[in-house]
Write a structure and sequence with these properties.
Helix content of chain A: over 70%
Mean pLDDT of chain A: 87
Radius of gyration of chain B: 23 Å
Distance between the termini of chain B: 27 Å
Number of strands of chain B: 0
Shape of chain A: flat
Number of helices of chain B: 13
Shape of chain B: globular
Radius of gyration of chain A: 25 Å
Mean pLDDT of chain B: 91
Order of helices and strands of chain A: HHHHHHHHHHHHHH
Largest sheet of chain B: none
Oligomer: heterodimer
Strand content of chain A: under 5%
C-alpha cells in the first residue's frame, strides 16, 4: 500500500469546507493511524498466509493439496456446507415470510431466539450436540443398546452403522447451528422494509400463493438471499470450534479443512498447514469479492425501485 | 389491523416450520445443557465453576476481551471516520478488507497470528529484543481477540457517520465552535450509542472465541487458558458434567450480553429518531 498522500489535495471532492473539516495535518495523521492499525492486523497476516504456504515452493504446495488426507478434508467440508447452507436457506425464507408478512404475538421473542446461535461460543455449540446424541447423551441413552427405550431404533442404527457424534451427521448439525441466523438475518429486515403491498396486489389479481412467491417475492429478495448465502457458506466452510468438538478428528474421515489445518500444525508441518490454510484464505477473499458485487447490484436495484414510483 | 382478513397464504406453514426448525436445531439442544447440569448437586456445580483454573480463565477471558474491544473501539472509530470522511488512494480496497476477520476462518487466523508473533516471526522478531513476548502469553490472547473484533466497531459506526446531517456541524461551526469542540460536543454524543453497540458486539464475540486464540495462547493452565479451552479440556477427558457446568456460566453471560445489545440497539434507534426530529 502506498501512503495516502496524493488525494489529500482534493478536499473539495467531499464537498466539505474549512469550518467543518480537519486541517491537512490532522487528516494525514488519522489516515496514517488507520492504515497502520489495519496493516498490522489485516494486511500483514493476509500476506503472510500466502507467503508461508509457498515457503517450500510450488511443488510442496501441490503435494500438500493433492494429499489424500487434504482431498478427503475438502470433500467433507464441501458436503457439510452443501447440506447446511440450503437447509438454513429454506429456514431463512420461511422465517422472513412469517415475520415480515404477518402480525402475531411474540414476534420480538422469535427474532431474539433466531439470533441466539450467534451469542453461543463455538465450543458450546458443539457440546450441546454431544449432550443430546453422544453415548451418555439425552437421546444417546435411549438409543444405546444397554438402555434402549426403542430397541428397534437402536438395532437399526447399529445394523446400519449410523453414528451421529464423531461422524458426518454431527458435523452437519454443528455447522447448521453456527450458521443458523445468517440467511434469516439478511432477509427479515429486507422483507419487512418491502412490506406486503406487492404480494397482496398479486393475490388480489388472482395469482396463487406459489406464483406470488416466485414471481413477486423472489425477484425482490434475490440479492439479499444471495448475500446471506455467501456469508452462511463462508462460515460453514470455515467453522472450527464447534466442529472440532463433534468430529472426533479421525484423519481422512472426519477432519474438515479447518481441522486438517490444526492436525498439520500440531505435526509441526507448518508449511503444509499454511498451504491448506491458503485455500480457506482464498475462499475468504472470494467471499469478500462476491459480497462487494452483491452490495453493488443490491444498491443499484434499490435505487431503481426508489426512483420508479 | 388485527381483524383484517389475511390475503397472503402460508402463515401456518411458515410459522410452523420456523418454530419446528428453531426447536430442533437450537432450543432443544441448548436446553440439554441445563438438563445435564441438573445431574450435579449445587455444591458440585459451585466447586466446578470456582476451581482455580476456571477462575483464572474467567479473569483472562473477560480481561483480554474487554481490552481488545476497548482498543478496537478507539482504532475502529478512527478507521470508520477515515473511510467515511476522507478520500485517499485504495480507500475502497481498504473498506472491503475490513470484513476480513468475519470471512477468514478462525483456524487460519489462529495459525497466522501464532506464526507472525513467534520468536522468529515477522512481527515477533522485532518485539522479542525489546522484551515484549506475545506468543504463549496473555498478550497473545489479546492480539487474537483484537483481530476478530476489528470489524464490529467499524461496521456499526460507519453507517451512522454516513447518515449524519452536515448541517449540524455547520451550525455548530457558524456559532463559533472549534473543530475539536464540534467533535467532542456534537459528533461524539451522537455516535455514542453506535460505539457502545459495536463495543458490546466485539466484547461478546471475543468471550466465546476459540479457534483464533488457541494457537497463539499456548494454553498454559492458570496463565493463558481461556474459558472455552477449559471446556474443551473437560470434554477430552469425557467429563461432560464439568464441561457443561462451565458452559452454563458462559451461556448466562452471553445471554445477558445479547439482551444488552438489544437494549442498546433500541436506544440507538430512538436516539436517531429524536435527533432527526
Amino acid at each position: 500500500m502506498t501512503p495516502a498522500a496524493p488525494t489529500l489535495h482534493l478536499p473539495r471532492r467531499t464537498g466539505r469546507h474549512h469550518a467543518t473539516s480537519e486541517s491537512p495535518l490532522v487528516r494525514r495523521l488519522l489516515i496514517g493511524v488507520a492504515l497502520a492499525f489495519l496493516s498490522l492486523f489485516l494486511f500483514v497476516p493476509l500476506i503472510s498466509v500466502f507467503t508461508q504456504a509457498l515457503a517450500k515452493g510450488i511443488g510442496f504446495y501441490a503435494h500438500t493439496i493433492m494429499d489424500p488426507m487434504t482431498v478427503s478434508a475438502i470433500k467433507l467440508t464441501l458436503i457439510a456446507a452443501a447440506i447446511a447452507v440450503p437447509l438454513n436457506c429454506v429456514f431463512g425464507v420461511c422465517a422472513a415470510w412469517t415475520i415480515a408478512k404477518f402480525d402475531f404475538r411474540g414476534k420480538n421473542i422469535l427474532l431474539t431466539l433466531i439470533d441466539l446461535p450467534f451469542s453461543v461460543s463455538p465450543v458450546i455449540s458443539g457440546l450441546i450436540y454431544v449432550l443430546v446424541f453422544g453415548a451418555q447423551g439425552w437421546l444417546g441413552l435411549y438409543l444405546n443398546a444397554d438402555h434402549a427405550k426403542f430397541p428397534w431404533l437402536a438395532n437399526w442404527l447399529n445394523d446400519h452403522d449410523i453414528k451421529i457424534i464423531f461422524a458426518l451427521p454431527g458435523i452437519v448439525l454443528a455447522t447448521i447451528f453456527v450458521t443458523f441466523p445468517f440467511v434469516a438475518r439478511e432477509l427479515i429486515p429486507l422483507m419487512q422494509a418491502q412490506g406486503r403491498n406487492e404480494e397482496e396486489a398479486a393475490r388480489v389479481l388472482g395469482a396463487s400463493g406459489w406464483q406470488t412467491f416466485w414471481r413477486v417475492t423472489v425477484p425482490n429478495i434475490k440479492w439479499g438471499l444471495l448475500y446471506g448465502v455467501i456469508l452462511c457458506n463462508a462460515r460453514a466452510m470455515g467453522e472450527f470450534g464447534a466442529v472440532s468438538v463433534v468430529s472426533g478428528k479421525i484423519r481422512g474421515q472426519t477432519n474438515t479443512l479447518p481441522l486438517h489445518i490444526e492436525a498439520l500444525y500440531d505435526d509441526y508441518n507448518f508449511t503444509g498447514a499454511f498451504a491448506v490454510a491458503s485455500l480457506l484464505a482464498l475462499l475468504a477473499l472470494v467471499t469478500l469479492g462476491l459480497k462487494l458485487w452483491v452490495e453493488h447490484n443490491h444498491a443499484a436495484l434499490n435505487d431503481a425501485q426508489i426512483s420508479s414510483p | 389491523m388485527a381483524h383484517k382478513m389475511r390475503v397472503l397464504p402460508g402463515f401456518r406453514l411458515t410459522l410452523g416450520f420456523t418454530l419446528f426448525y428453531l426447536g430442533l436445531i437450537v432450543l432443544i439442544p441448548l436446553s440439554a445443557v441445563f438438563w445435564k447440569t441438573s445431574s450435579l448437586t449445587w455444591s458440585e456445580f459451585w466447586h466446578t465453576v470456582t476451581l482455580p483454573t476456571a477462575l483464572a480463565s474467567y479473569r483472562l477471558t473477560f480481561g483480554a476481551s474487554f481490552l481488545a474491544a476497548l482498543v478496537n473501539a478507539f482504532f475502529g472509530f478512527i478507521v470508520a471516520w477515515v473511510l467515511v470522511r476522507y478520500e485517499f488512494f485504495g480507500r475502497k480496497f481498504v473498506d472491503a478488507l475490513v470484513d476480513l476477520p468475519f470471512a477468514l476462518p478462525t483456524a487460519v487466523a489462529g495459525i497466522t497470528l501464532a506464526s507472525l508473533y513467534a520468536k522468529a516471526g515477522w512481527i515477533g522478531q522485532w518485539l522479542e529484543p525489546v522484551g515484549i513476548k506475545v506468543a504463549n502469553t496473555q498478550l497473545g490472547v489479546f492480539v487474537a481477540l483484537t483481530f476478530i473484533g476489528l470489524p464490529f466497531i467499524v461496521r456499526t459506526v460507519q453507517p451512522i457517520l454516513e447518515d449524519l446531517d452536515p448541517e449540524l456541524e455547520e451550525a455548530a461551526a457558524s456559532l463559533g465552535a472549534t473543530r475539536w469542540q464540534v467533535f467532542w460536543r456534537v459528533l461524539l454524543p451522537m455516535l455514542t450509542p453506535a460505539l457502545l453497540t459495536g463495543f458490546t458486539l466485539a466484547f461478546a464475540r471475543a468471550l466465546g472465541e476459540y479457534g483464533s486464540v488457541i494457537f497463539i495462547a499456548g494454553n498454559l493452565p492458570l496463565k493463558t487458558q481461556i474459558t472455552p479451552v477449559i471446556i474443551m479440556g473437560e470434554l477430552d477427558m469425557f467429563d461432560y458434567a464439568k464441561a457443561t457446568a462451565i458452559a452454563v456460566v458462559m451461556l448466562i453471560v452471553s445471554f445477558a450480553l445479547l439482551l444488552s445489545v438489544n437494549v442498546l440497539q433500541w436506544w440507538t434507534n430512538r436516539h436517531n429518531r429524536t435527533s432527526l426530529a
